[in-house]
Design a protein that fits this description.
Layout (H helix, E strand, L loop, with lengths): L1 H25 L5 E5 L43 H8 L7 E2 L13 E3 L21 H19 L1 H11 L1 E5 L2 H8 L6 H6 L2 H21 L4 E5 L8 H6 L9 H24 L4 E5 L1 H10 L14 E2 L15 E2 L16 H13 L5 E2 L3 H5 L2
Parallel strand pairs: 1-3, 1-4, 2-3, 4-5, 5-6
Antiparallel strand pairs: 6-9, 7-8
Helix pairs in contact: 2-11, 3-4, 3-7, 7-9
GO molecular function: hydrolase activity, acting on ester bonds
Keywords: Hydrolase, Lipid degradation, Lipid metabolism, Signal
Protein name: Lipase
Amino acid sequence: MAMKICPFICVVWFISFVLLAKAADDKGLGASFIFGDSLVDAGNNNYLPTLSKANIRPNGIDFKASGGNPTGRYTNGRTIGDIVGQELGQPNFAVPFLAPNSTGKAILYGVNYASGGGGILNATGRIFVNRLGMDVQIDYFNITRKQIDKLLTPSKAKDYISKKSFFSITVGANDFLNNYLLPVLSIGARISQSPDSFVDDMIKHLRGQLTRLYQLDARKFVVGNVGPIGCIPYQKTINQLKQDQCVELPNKLAVQYNGRLKDLLAELTDNLPGSTFLYANVYDLVMELITNYDKYGFSTASRACCGNGGQFAGIVPCGPTSSMCSDRSAHVFWDPYHPSEAANVLLAKKLLDGDRRYISPMNLRQLKDI
C-alpha cells in the first residue's frame, strides 16, 4: 500500500510545486532577500545568544500573522520589508534565515538575513555580544543561493535570482550608534580616526559586500541610506533636548555617509553590467515625518510609544515592564530606536510609489517591471 501511495503523493507534490513556480513566474514575482539591522530583522536574533532581542511583549502586538505575539521584529507590527513584500504580491513574509522553517520551497518567497545590532563593519554591535554583520549575512545568502540551485536547477535559479528577485539592504545606522559614537568603547577610535576615515571604511566594506551579492547573481538592489539618527527618542532623551530638537553630530555623520553612498551606488551601476541600484532616501523620508508629524496623523514624533525613562521614554527599551501609549498609530516611534508600524506603512508607500526625492532612479514598482 505504501509503495502505491508514495508515488501518488510525490506526483501531487511535484504538480503543486510546478504550479507554484508558474504562478510566481506569471506574476513576475520572485524572492525578497532582506539584509540589514533591527529596522528589518524579522526574528534572526531570536536564535542568537545576544543582548539585542525583540521576542518579548509587547513587541509585535499589532502583528496580525502571529496573533499579536512577539516574533523578534523590533516594532509593534510589520517592518518596511514586510510591507513592501506584501504590496508587491508576495504571499508570505521572507523567513528569517536562522529559523527552522527556512528550508525547502519557503525560500522561494525570500529570506531575511537582517540582525538587530548588525552593521557594515564587523566590529559594529559588539556591545550586544552576538549579531550578524553584513559579511556573515552574505555568507548565509550564499548557502541559500546553493539551495535554490537544487530547487530550480542552476539555469532557472540564476534567472529567478537575477530577473525576478529583490535585494534590499538597510544598514549603516549601527555603525555610528553602536560603534563610532558609542561611549567608552569607541572613544579611542574617535581620537585616532576622523569621521572622513570612518565613513571611507564603511563605503569600502559596503562596496565589497554589494559586489559579492552581484557575483551571486543579485541584480535588482534597493539600498537605504542612514536616517536622522540624532532625532530618535533615545538620542533626544540622553541629550536632554526639547521636542523639536535633534542631536547634531549623529545627523551630520549620517548626511556625510549618505552622500558617499549615493555616489557608490552610481559607481556600481556603471561598473556592474545589468545591475540596478536604487537609492532609498530614508533620511529625508523620516525627517519629513518627524518635522510634519501632525500632517500625517501622528500626535508625536519625539516620544516613544513603548519605553521608559526621561521626557521621551527613550532610555529603557520596550519590554513587559515598559509603559505603552494608548494609541500606537499616533506615534512615529514605537520604541526609543525604531519606527511604529504606522510610520513604516507611510515610509514603504513612498519607496513603492514615490518620486525621485525619496527613491531614485526609479521606485520599487518600476524596478519590479524591468
